[in-house]
Amino acid sequence: MGPWRCLLLLPLLAPALRAQQQQFMEYVERRITLLEERISQWHDQSSRYSTELRDFKNQVLGMLEAAEKEREAMRAEAESAAVRVERLEREVDYLETQNPAPPCVEVDETLMDKQVVTAKQRKNEKYNKLTDCSDTIASVRAMKILKRFGSSSGLWTKDAAGSSEKIYVFDGTANDTVYVFPRMREFTLFSATRKAARIKLPYPWVGTGHLVYDGHLYYIRQQGPSFQVIKFNLANKTVVDSSVFPAEEQIPVFGLSPSTYIEVSADEEGLWAIYATKEDEKNMCLAKLDPASLDIEQMWDTPCPRENAEGAFVVCGALHVVYNTRLPSRARVQCVFDVSGTLAPEDASLVYFPKRYGSHASLKYSPRERQIYAWDDGYQIIYRMEMKKKMEV
């Protein structure tokens, strides 16, 4: 196309070019307007965020100041509590210095010898029953494992004579602190001892042969080669009486419980003591105790061997000895000795306990509930007993 033709087309194309230019400028203006609106929005949002951030910072600073004030107040309260505790400890120490020590009963050797002679004179005599109880154990009706508490050896029980629902727990074979739970529910539900009261005894116990009876704790204390029965009032936390057990050269009463030298037991007839001496080291001995004075009223040599015995209890005047093996197996009542002579040995039931974890560390018969509180390798178990009438010889 020649130049002259281009010159002829310019007047025709000029309006179109101006229109495109105008559209382009309008497009650019719209884009700039959008950018300005976005910049304005960003500025507004940035300003709002800055304001919110400043308010949040002020709020956090206020909370930190309040927390610091609360910390200072708590520190002041803790210091005040520490001062009060220290003052209370001083007052307790003062009271302990003012109160007399628990009575240590002097042993009258002449009186003790007289008691031993009297008891030996009545040794192996037929027992005159105090009650009309004529029941004996037929079988273990039910078994309930409550929980696992404490060490492998211990004792738990209720008051064998009173109506209290308190649970008394003796953890271990050598200790001086008794845990007291208000009811079975608190003992069962809580694994810790925070729900338990603590009773600190004046002397540590030995073994697991202790007993709670009519508001008193009867527990065993070792003094060198001899053993002492301590009667402790649970209400006023004092020693009421104590007596050296009148048996010489005592040995562990149960072959599978080497820490227990005296087992204090309760039944419908009252208090009993199960023990063993070197004089007849193969079999156990039984004694009737006076719960008021701790005197030995009568003594018996029993035919029940110590070997493989893990525990024993008395029911209606009849000694029941539970045997096991050194390997865990089913425990069983294999020897029964009735001091009144109303139960022939061949008529006694061979009572089996269900298979458990190991060997019983303690077995406490409750005459008012007709059940046994057992401690087995740290597990607390209740055995409910089925009873039957004795067949007289």
Descriptive report:
Residues 57-98 form a coiled coil. Residues 132-389 form the Olfactomedin-like domain. One of its GO terms (cellular component) is extracellular space. Residues 1-19 form the signal peptide. There is one protein chain. With 393 residues, the chain is of the alpha+beta class. The chain has two domains: 17-95; 135-389, Neuraminidase, CATH 2.120.10. The chain has three helices and 20 strands. It has helices spanning 3-98, 109-121, 184-189, and strands at residues 135-148, 154-157, 167-171, 177-181, 197-200, 211-213, 216-223, 226-233, 238-244, 262-267, 270-275, 283-289, 296-305, 309-315, 318-323, 332-338, 351-352, 360-366, 371-376, 379-389. A four-stranded antiparallel beta sheet has the order 1-20-19-18, with no helix packed on it. Strand 3 and strand 4 form a beta hairpin. The longest helix has 96 residues, at 3-98. The protein is elongated, with a radius of gyration of 42 Å. The N and C termini lie far apart (150 Å). Mean pLDDT is 83; it is low at 96-108.
